[in-house]
Design goal:
243 residues; mainly alpha; globular
């Protein structure tokens, strides 16, 4: 546990000493501002669904950019020091989990602040405790899935940097348009199942005006399974693909 804690401290210092967190944070704030400053009243659930997609994409950007922060020589020295590749790569996954929690918390607080400032006149219905709870779970799981997917596009797994960017672009398109593409061409569901079902959140709730906790828990579990699977695949590939 101490080794993992020390590695997390190292990840924290390395990441926040760089400027890589600035642009994702700026875009996250701008997108939240764009959602919650539109003419009122706006659909509460629709705005949160939109925020889920933006949060997923920002977190994917964070996971992707974190890969470029890693120095191969430094990595090898740290792995030799902790004497475990698994622990080292696990520390990166845990750190991305922490970043995902920060991103999702910012996204979840945004509608709460907007509701308070507007005195509950911004949305088409009052913003309630259940809305905050369910949106936080959805946003956190979307952020985890996004950061893990971005992290999977590692330069040791995909050697060509242009191919990494191209793959990331395709993932952005497929993630955003997955629901419409499957609706138009049903056979694509057998291919696009590898993409986290962030776009499917919009059709998951039987009542379009209220969050259902059972549905939220189901989506939360599904997205965390994607995040876990991406992390396991990444760690397995990096352990197999040596420096």
């Amino acid at each position: 546990m101490k080794t993992l804690t020390d590695l997390l401290n190292y990840q924290r210092l390395s990441y926040f000493k760089s400027s890589r967190f600035v642009m994702p944070l700026v875009w996250l704030l701008l997108l939240q501002l764009a959602i919650y400053t539109t003419p009122r009243p706006i659909g509460l659930m629709d705005s949160i669904f939109m925020s889920c997609m933006y949060t997923f994409l920002i977190a994917m950007w964070v996971g992707l950019s974190y890969n470029n922060l890693e120095d191969e020589v430094g990595e090898q020295l740290l792995i030799l020091r902790v004497k475990s590749e698994t622990v080292y790569y696990l520390s990166i996954s845990v750190f991305l989990l922490i970043l995902s929690a920060i991103i999702s918390l910012i996204s979840a607080i945004a509608p709460l602040i907007a509701a308070i400032v507007s005195q509950q006149t911004l949305f088409d219905r009052p913003f309630e405790t259940n809305d905050f709870f369910c949106s936080l779970l959805l946003l956190f799981s979307c952020a985890c899935a996004g950061s893990a997917l971005g992290s999977l596009l590692h330069p040791r797994i995909i050697k060509d940097k242009k191919l990494i960017l191209l793959t990331a672009l395709f993932l952005v398109v497929f993630s955003s348009a997955r629901l419409a593409m499957v609706r138009e061409y049903s056979f694509l569901k057998f291919i696009l199942w590898v993409i986290p079902p962030v776009a499917d959140i919009t059709k998951a709730y039987p009542v379009s005006t209220a969050f259902s906790r059972p549905v939220t828990f189901q989506l939360f579990g599904q997205l965390l399974l994607y995040a876990g699977a991406f992390s396991v695949v990444k760690i397995g590939l990096l352990k197999k693909i040596k420096f």
